């Protein structure tokens, strides 16, 4: 269980990207992965979300056809205004996803998400969500958001803050349609969102 708030744990810790937790300690340990104390509160929260996204890649399988070559990078895309600062780029410079180098692409809709493996859709794109999702439905692109209603609308993983803790919900129907395989361990940590065809 999480023992304290996002900001208190992140604000009072040191960033140690070389010592990464296993999935078993994902929820608790991520909050102990610190960030520079001078970062504003909203940026600290997004750094925690960035850490979650990198961990997600370890427990989700993409079809081999998602990568055009053995040395093709894993592409993190973002669309809209989110307070990641340069954290995604710093993380990409120090880590790999699925054994591949990480490339960060910041997009502005209606740019095509073709070539993305993970697409973070910011709250600023809430009104455009119905236009964005048709571009990714059925494609092996993990969609991630942090806005109420996004998971029900078809975003695969959606962050929400509950009592000061970052948590996430999962739309398994959207994940299956995209051909992505979620680890059962990851599913146990998220809240599964029922779709219209499910109780």
How would you portray this structure in words?
By secondary structure, the protein is α/β, with parallel strands linked by helices. The chain has a single domain, classed as Rossmann fold (3-Layer(aba) Sandwich). Helix content is 28%, strand content 21%. The protein contains eight helices and ten strands. The strands form two sheets. The chain has an eight-stranded mixed sheet, with helices on both faces. A two-stranded antiparallel sheet has the order 1-9. The longest helix is centred in the first third of the chain and has 16 residues. The N terminus is likely disordered.
Strand segment tally: 10
Strand content: 15-25%
Helical coverage, percent range = 25-40%
- Overall mean pLDDT: 82
- What characterizes the major β-sheet? 8 strands, mixed
Overall structural domain count: 1
Number of helices: 8
> SSE order, as H and E?
HHHEEHEEEHEHEEHEHE
Unreliable sequence segments: 1-24, 31-37
Q: State the strand order across the main sheet.
A: 3-4-2-5-6-7-8-10
Cα(first) to Cα(last) distance is 27 Å
